[in-house]
C-alpha cells in the first residue's frame, strides 16, 4: 500500500528536496506551499501540491482537509518543515515581530501537528517529524527570534514524544546546521519590515556584522551541507522500524553539542560571541 506524507514549506530547499526524493521512493507526497505559483510549478513537475500557510489557521485546516480528502482520510507521515528567520538584535526586536515568528515556527506547526494526530490515532500509526535547528539547542547572536521559536518547538516536541509513547505514533526532531537553501534571502523581507537598525543603539554593529552576512552572497558557510544530508535522516525517521528521537545533522551541530558537553557555559558563550 502506498504511504502518504504531508510536507510543509516545499517551494525550495529542504522541503522541495524531500518531496522529490520521497516521490521517487514511492511515497505519495503532498508538497504544500504558500503561493499558488509555487503550487503550479510543483504540479508541472509531477508532484501533488496544495496551499498551506502556517501563519493562517484557516489555511492550515483547509490544506489538511484537502490532503485527507485525496487520501480517503489517512496520512502516514507529517514533515513540519516550514519556517523562517528574522535577524536582528533582541533589543531591536518588536514584540509583534517575535509574535509573527512564533505564528509560523511554533503556533502554526503546533496547530497542524494536533490536527493530524486524530487521524494517526484512528489508523494506529504515524510519523511526525519536526524540523528544528541547531539553534533549538544552542544560540548565536542576531538570531533571537529564531532561537526562541526553535527552543519552544523543542520543548513542545520533547513533551509530545513522551506523551505519544505506546500510541503507534513516532515523533522525531531534526536538528540541522547550515544547509544550502534560500533561508538567508527569505530573511531579508522580515528584517526590512521589522528591524529599524539605523536607529539602533549601535547601527555600526549592524554594518560591521549582520548587513554583510544578510545582503552579500559570501559563499557556503563553514560545514555547510546540501539538502540531501537532511533528506537522508528524514527517510530514516519515517521508514525505520525504530526511528531516533533526534537527528543531529551537519558537522556544525555535532561540534556545538560537543562544546556544550565539554565546557562550562562561560566558555561556550565566549566562543559563540566570536562567530
Automatic annotation (TrEMBL):
Gene Ontology molecular function: oxidoreductase activity
- SMART domains annotated for this entry? PKS_KR (SM00822)
Question: What is the designated name of this protein?
Answer: SDR family NAD(P)-dependent oxidoreductase
Family membership noted in the UniProt record: Belongs to the short-chain dehydrogenases/reductases (SDR) family.
PANTHER family named in the record: NADPH-DEPENDENT 1-ACYLDIHYDROXYACETONE PHOSPHATE REDUCTASE
Ranges where the Ketoreductase domain occurs: 3-182
Q: Which UniProt keywords apply?
A: Oxidoreductase
- Kindly give the Pfam families that the UniProt entry links to this protein: adh_short (PF00106)
Amino acid at each position: 500500500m502506498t504511504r502518504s506524507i504531508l510536507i510543509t514549506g516545499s517551494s525550495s530547499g529542504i522541503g522541495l528536496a524531500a518531496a522529490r526524493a520521497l516521490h521517487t521512493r514511492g511515497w505519495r507526497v503532498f508538497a504544500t506551499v504558500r503561493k499558488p505559483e509555487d503550487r503550479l510549478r510543483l504540479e508541472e513537475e509531477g508532484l501533488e501540491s496544495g496551499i498551506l500557510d502556517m501563519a493562517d489557521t484557516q489555511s492550515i485546516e483547509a490544506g489538511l482537509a484537502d490532503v485527507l480528502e485525496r487520501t480517503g482520510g489517512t496520512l502516514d507521515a507529517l514533515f513540519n518543515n516550514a519556517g523562517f528567520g528574522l535577524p536582528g538584535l533582541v533589543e531591536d526586536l518588536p514584540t509583534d515581530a517575535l509574535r509573527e515568528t512564533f505564528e509560523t515556527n511554533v503556533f502554526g506547526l503546533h496547530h497542524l501537528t494536533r490536527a493530524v494526530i486524530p487521524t494517526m490515532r484512528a489508523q494506529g500509526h504515524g510519523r511526525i517529524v519536526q524540523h528544528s535547528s541547531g539553534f533549538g539547542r544552542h544560540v548565536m547572536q542576531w538570531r533571537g527570534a529564531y532561537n526562541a521559536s526553535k527552543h519552544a518547538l523543542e520543548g513542545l516536541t520533547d513533551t509530545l514524544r513522551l506523551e505519544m509513547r505506546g500510541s503507534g505514533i513516532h515523533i522525531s526532531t531534526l536538528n540541522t546546521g547550515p544547509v544550502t537553501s534560500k533561508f538567508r534571502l527569505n530573511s531579508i523581507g522580515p528584517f526590512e519590515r521589522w528591524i529599524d537598525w539605523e536607529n539602533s543603539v549601535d547601527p555600526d554593529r549592524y554594518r560591521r556584522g549582520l548587513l554583510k552576512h544578510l545582503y552579500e552572497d559570501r559563499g557556503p558557510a563553514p560545514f555547510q551541507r546540501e539538502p540531501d544530508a537532511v533528506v537522508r535522516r528524514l527517510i530514516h525517521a519515517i521508514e525505520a522500524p525504530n526511528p531516533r528521537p533526534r537527528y543531529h545533522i551537519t558537522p556544525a551541530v555535532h561540534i556545538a553539542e560537543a562544546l556544550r558537553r565539554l565546557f562550562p557555559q562561560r566558555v561556550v558563550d565566549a566562543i559563540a560571541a566570536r562567530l
